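[Q] Does anyone have a clean structure-token version of this?
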Amino acid sequence: MLENQTFNRVGTNHQISANAYNLILGAVLLWGFAVNWYLVTTVPADVIQAIPMLLFMAGYMITTLTGVAIIFKSEKPLYSFLGYNLIVVPIGLLLVIVLPDYSHQNIIKAVQTTALLTVGMMLLGTAFPAFFKRIEASLFIALVVAIVVELGQAWLFGTRLAAMDWIVAAIFCGYIGVDWGRANQIERTVDNAIDSAASLYLDIINLFLRILRIMSKK
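[A] Here you go.
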């Protein structure tokens, strides 16, 4: 879901085989989830909660935006991987705070459902890349509107509609198809594999959190 320009760099790295490209992309994705799992299982939630929320969110935003900026500008795999970790670590710390509010059973179910949806959307992204490319702008507009609506509900009325979780989950399902389809169409370089993994990681994490909310409400 990162900007298109991130993936439009060509000729800046040596092209690699399709197998190597997909292996690197998958390995980077798994690295991000492994880091998240490690943080969630080893960092006590009360340690993070002891940090003032405003300070934590400021650090979270600065770190993740720095990571996105590095990925966006970098043409070197090492720098892109650094940017990726600057996104993964603060999200992992956020999960340390968020996940204790949910039951272990719902977390497992959400992980399983997210995995199935991710694989399904990747298959669709491979089969119909032109379709997902056409709907990308619509998905972006829908996501912006959803964010504005949710913020308006929270700040103005102190409420939130359960339907918004379903809407946002559908949007990120679409983004997985978009980003996977794009990943298979751009030049196969190590840097592009890392950049593609970063976008897919953000899509999958956001989808997981929405599914977790939906299942917990049930």
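[Q] Thanks! Anything notable?
[A] Residues 129-157 form the longest helix (29 residues).
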